[in-house]
Amino acid sequence: MFGGGWPRWNTLCAHRDLLVACFCVSAPPEEGAWLEAADGKRHLIKGSCSLGRTAANTIVLQSPKVSRRHALIHLQNIGELWLIDFGSSNGTFLNKRRIHHPIRLSDGDQITIGDLASRRGHSRFYASQPAHTERGFGHSSRSVDFSLQGDHRKSAWGN
């Protein structure tokens, strides 16, 4: 998936309770941040990753509980992910608490989009960040749990 021919772009869609496909990648997986889908595949995140119901989003979630432009996960620096809610009707939750301002994500955080009552899918964000090692600098990974809520079995194209 990460070798050789990089796709120019694709929209990452929720499909059959898994996040599938990849989008605008140009760096090896050990740099930046990536989404790990429930099937174990990794999808690199470069810059910002928008979540919402319309095809204009990086991650498309087909659910009436999800706003057209619901939230954003923004990679500020290597290993620094921020969660931003766009004033969504049903809210964006971090560790079961609704957020009202941009908030930095930490290892083990759980993001919930839409309805808290129904857990349908589960994926994880990783951020690779420089870490001190005995030989100098290396990379360490941290994870952020990401729960997709509501009925998102259809992709943006109705599959």
Strand content: over 45%
CATH topology: Tumour Suppressor Smad4
* CATH secondary-structure class: Mainly Beta
Compressed to H and E, one letter per element, the order equals: EEEEEEEEEEEEEE
Tally of strands: 14
Structural class: mainly beta
> In the CATH classification, which architecture applies?
Sandwich
Major sheet description: 7 strands, mixed
Mean pLDDT, as a whole number? 60
By DSSP (H or I, 4+ residues per run), the number of helices equals: 0
Gross morphology is globular
Give the N-to-C terminal Cα separation.
Answer: 22 Å
Please tell me about this protein's structure.
This protein has 159 residues and is mainly β. The protein has no helices and 14 strands. β7 and β8 form a beta hairpin. It has a seven-stranded mixed sheet with strand order 2-1-6-5-7-8-11, with no helix packed on it. It has a seven-stranded mixed sheet with strand order 4-3-13-14-12-9-10, with no helix packed on it. The two termini are 22 Å apart. The chain has one domain: Tumour Suppressor Smad4. The N terminus and C terminus are likely disordered.
Topology diagram in text:
Elements: E1 12-15, E2 18-20, E3 33-36, E4 42-45, E5 48-52, E6 59-60, E7 71-77, E8 80-85, E9 92-94, E10 97-98, E11 103-104, E12 110-113, E13 119-133, E14 136-149
Parallel strand pairs: 1-6, 5-6, 12-14
Antiparallel strand pairs: 1-2, 3-4, 3-13, 5-7, 7-8, 8-11, 9-10, 9-12, 13-14
List the defining traits of the structure above.
single chain; 159 residues; mainly beta; Tumour Suppressor Smad4; seven-stranded mixed β-sheet; disordered N terminus; disordered C terminus
